[in-house]
């Protein structure tokens, strides 16, 4: 079963205080190695959180492009992993090990798989 | 005649072990819907066959075998099911009859623990956890669960459907957490059982103070957990707590259904068997390092039950136990209870000081027992005007009618002596 781990961090515009001891690059590299070595990683990467741009197409076809995520968004997706594990408990274990879970949140979502015809 | 006997047997088996049958089927097929449907079909088959063929010696094994056969038929017939199960990687032995029809009751594995952990999985909302536990382990029907929550049946049915969909869709596993995960997961299961009990102990709304059906179900669930996890001390502690608290049930309401406070209760009405059973369980729950919150609460309940009169209750010991409880579970609610015990030990003034410190606590906002406790202490100190104001504040927040009547009576006694 495929699960997408969405690593949420504070939005760059957020006025909330950032923890001084944020996760280090080494923390993330160690996690990446663990998830790769376990053979469950299908894909995964960090995302640049300063270049987010949002597109919304209005009913009349007008394309509205705005800087950043939706206004009022406190958190922004800072990275993701796509993993293949047997069940939710296994996915939650990986999410809990992700350094992002200690300073932000990691949302676990199942990837919808259509039943083969 | 025979038909009646058969129908009664089906009922008895189903009432007693519906949870077990469902748990076994869910564990085999990893699908709550399939488990429910085939269990119902097996019951229907039993109602037709048993009056003709006679009641089998091992009714549960018969039902299980029948249900499993129907599940396999359905999987063969229904492509969608087959594919879903293939996705679930159901091993071939899961679909094979591992329990022979002649197996005795005790030969059949009890899979209810797996179902407990699935129903109380933290990925489900607290409401869904309680609803699923009542539905699949306590054996309540959806309308009964809806009544327990005081919501329309359709709302509850929707909530259960959504929860089942999440179990299947996110693939919440049917398994007992390993020893390393158990300390994190077990409290969630115990909390659900405790919540069912507290709603039965003092209903959050409605005309009745007690909901005996819910209290009974909670005790039944705690007994099952205790049987399945006899060495988990908090499970033992929870069962002890429920028994020792429930022992006072008959004395807590008068003939008219009105509330009788602890100090006014006829202690001869307390259930001595429950007290004895609870006290036996408290000992192992408390023994050893790292004592848990349910065991401490059970010890407090035991001290209340052991007192021959309200006045002779061992208040110093109760305050000491609340201090321990505050250490392991620091919460304003525990502090509130401790303050009430402290007032009994050191006088109302001392209790009031602590209660006033709690007034701003977010957790207690909207909780009627805080102003009610303040009112009681102010009344005992002769500060009638302040007491009346506190009773009015409590009356604004109280949910069930008998508790409201008690508070209103106190207020009347103060304002119009």
Automatic annotation (TrEMBL), chain A:
InterPro entries: Dimeric_a/b-barrel, YCII. It comes from the Bacteria. Belongs to the YciI family. Residues 1-113 form the YCII-related domain. Pfam families: YCII. It comes from Streptomyces noursei. This is YCII-related domain-containing protein.
